[in-house]
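Proteins fold. Shown next:

***
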Amino acid sequence: MNGLSTRQTVGTNLGFVTLVSVVAAIGGLLFGYDTAVISGAIVFMQQKFHLGPGMQGWAVSCLMIGAIVGAGCAGVLSDRFGRKKMLIIAGILFAIGSIGSAVPPTISQFVIARIIGGVGIGISSTLVPLYIAEIAPAKHRGSLVSLNQLAVVIGISAIYFVNMWVANMGSLAWDISSAWRWMFGLGVVPGCVFIFLLVFVPESPRWLEKQGMGDKALRVLARINGTDRAEAELSEIRETLQNESENLGLLFRPGFRIALVVGIVLAILQQVTGINAIMYYAPEIFKHTGAGTNASLIETVITGADNLVFTLVSLWLIDRVGRKVLLLIGSAVMTVSLAVVGYAFHTGQTAGYLVLVFILLFVAAFAVSFGPIVWLVMAEIFPTRIRGRATAIASVALWAADYAVSQSFPVLLNSVGVASTFWTFGILSLVAFVFTMALVPETKGKSLEEIERSWGRGNLRTPAK
């Protein structure tokens, strides 16, 4: 991948840009692995450390504290040092966090290690979609950026299998003393793979041009789109950069204010509609239906597979149907699904497969819509000069919402009950539908520079041609 200076292409080199995107998206796999590993481990940790509902929520949500810090720093640091260097640092922090989470004798030391790993997750979750968006051709940007969400889902699905495999290796006593340690420690393997492969990918051409390294930017763009298109694209990037301020006050100008609102509110809605309550606490939720420990782990694996299949469906649809239509369909189905799940728990009709079916329907709708598209839109809608910092602001909002949900979910289950908790998520899914209808733009088929100019003209909400 380093032979950029000696090779020029005639047309879009989709194989090259896909390969680079896949490498970057391994950061999404780390994200999925590290956020979902707790779902299988928390059952045993709860018994090992005698955790109450509040401390159980803290053991799950402490990762998000690190992620908030990482996301908050990612924008400024990546705008200064580059997307690639910061992704490598993210991989290193993830590996340290995985090892540290596997060995602690106390819950306090576990929390510290999870926060360290969380900083790496916050950085990668912010920068992976941003990096892919900055190298991807407009025609394929949706599906390429969504590779990140596919990797997140693969990480989640993989850890569900790993958790079940590790938990079945020994007795319950061994599970409580050791199984959860292996669940966390095995994360060091994908972390090291990520660090190694990042050495071979190029830096973002838009970041290179912003730093005054136009020759390097042109070589990267030529490898992606061919020489002729690369020169035209670089000219467009330069023109856009010349008309931009590096001050975050740019986000409060007319037009861009809407971009800021869309980025932040979509980020929050992605989390408060309940997806990670299900991803983190799936075994606990299924236990409320009467399933035993092994059955609940199996149903959790089925949920992960459902998430994976419909994320693949989203990759196929996102550049064909568009962002906004999928968000509307997804949030509508999510609302109905959560209402039915809440009703089932309210009436006690949880035997059989009713709850499982509608949780699977909710996860499928989320995977097609809010899962990949929110990260994509966050990476698309902000101005180039401050894209890193602006995306970081939205990412911080996302992780803060994730923290609030994961911390409060066990408490809500023990206070207002399962039914009211799911109905709350359903109401917020309805809010997501209304917000999308009113404010979210369609960005399908537009270059990042076209999107930016459209905000300034105030006409981004018209469909892309």
Summary: The CA atoms of residues 4 and 219 lie 6 Å apart.
